[in-house]
Amino acid sequence: MKTTHSLLYRQILAALVDTRKAKGITQVDLARRLGKPQSFVSKFENGERRIDVAEFIEICRAMQVDALGLLAPICGDTGGN
Predict the structure, then answer these.
(1) Is 56 in contact with 65 (CB distance < 8 Å)?
(2) In whole numbers, what is the pLDDT of the chain averaged over residues?
C-alpha cells in the first residue's frame, strides 16, 4: 500500500475488505456486480488505486451494505448527533 494514504483512508479500505470477506463475496463476485474487471477490486483493496466517494457508494451497494453504516465506526459516530 502506498505510504501516501492516510490512516483514515486505510481504515476505510480495511472496512471494505473485511465486509466483503464477512459476506463471503470474492473479488471476482464483487467485480462482476460492479461491471468491472477483478483487477479493479484488487487494486483498490491493495491501495494501488484510490476510489472516490461515488465509487465507495457503488461498492457498498454492490455488497448490499449501508455506506453510512460502514463509515460510522470509523468516524466515531455512535448513531446519536
Answers:
(1) no
(2) 91
Domain tally for the chain? 1
pLDDT at 1: 47
Which parts of the chain register pLDDT below 70?
Answer: 1-4, 77-81
CB-CB contact of 19 with 70 (8 Å): yes
The pLDDT value given to residue 5: 73
Could you tell me if residue 81 is inside a domain? no
- Can you give the CATH number for the domain in which 42 is found? 1.10.260.40
Quick one: which of 65, 55, 64, 76 has its CA closest to 8? 76
Separation CA 71–CA 60 (nearest Å): 11
Residue 1, in any domain of the structure: no
Domain containing 33 equals 7-75
Q: What's the CA gap between 60 and 20, in Å, rounded?
A: 9
